[in-house]
Write a structure and sequence with these properties.
By secondary structure, this protein is mostly beta strands. The chain has strands at about 1-5, 10-15, 20-25, 35-40, 45-50, 55-60, 65-70, 75-80, 90-100, 105-110, 110-115. The N and C termini lie far apart (about 40 Å).
Length: about 120
């Protein structure tokens, strides 16, 4: 089992920045992936960014150039630096943990609300 604890959400004006953090504990491994999804009410959760084995990262097209995912392997923590935020970034952001053997997330955080005002 893996436990994920998120922090860093909040309210920010358009153009501002926020940094999300997610600490993993339990049966973790540096070869597994960690990342972020988000969900808007009435819509499916969508992938925002993922950090995989070897430092490989991937991003949704909508956040490329604005968001940066990073990982502190010593602390089992993943970060999402969000810059130039837009109202359409408003969502609940979920941290995920995915075993290297799987294609979809195995564990989810509780979610943290990010609200961007115009």
């Amino acid at each position: 089992q893996v436990q994920l604890v998120e922090s860093g959400g909040g309210l920010v004006q358009a153009g501002g920045s926020l940094r999300l953090s997610c600490a993993a504990s339990g049966s973790t491994s540096n070869i597994d992936a960690m990342g972020w999804y988000r969900q808007v009410p009435g819509k499916q959760r969508e992938l925002v960014a993922v950090s995989s084995r070897g430092g490989i990262t991937s991003y949704a097209d909508s956040v490329k150039g604005r968001f940066t995912i990073s990982r502190d392997y010593a602390r089992n923590t993943v970060y999402l630096q969000m810059n130039s935020l837009k109202p359409e970034d408003t969502a609940v952001y979920y941290c995920i943990y995915r075993r290297i053997t799987n294609w979809s997330p195995d564990y989810w955080g509780q979610g943290t609300q990010v609200t961007v005002s115009s």
